Amino acid sequence: MNERISDSIRLIIRRPILRTSIILGIITILVTNHLQITIWKLVDGWSNLLKLGSEALPPDFTVLTERAGWTYPPCTFESDMLCSPAVVGMTQTLEIAFLSTVFGMLISLPLAAMAASNLSPYWISQSVRQILAALRVLPSLIWALIFVIVVGVGPLAGVLAMTMYTIGYLGKLQYEALEGVSKEPLEVARAMGLPRWQVARFFAIPEASNALISQALFMFEYNVRHGSVIGLVGAGGIGWYMNHYLSPFQLYDKVLALIIIMFVVVVLIDQISLQIRKRFMDQEIYPPRALWRNIVPFFPLRGGE
Amino acid sequence: MNTQPPVRLKLEDAAIGFDQESPLLESVDLEIRAGEIVGLTGRSGIGKTTLLRTAAGLVSPLSGSVECCCTADTRAQKGAIGLIPQRLGLVQHQTVGYNVLMGALAGANFLQTALSLPSKKMREETRSVIEEVGLADKTLDSVNRLSGGQQRRVAIARAMLQEPDLLLADECLGELDAETARGIIDLFRHMADDHNMAILIVDHNPVRAKTFCDRVYQLRGRRLILFEEEEQSSALPIIGEVSA
Question: What is the pTM of this model?
Answer without folding.
Answer: 0.76
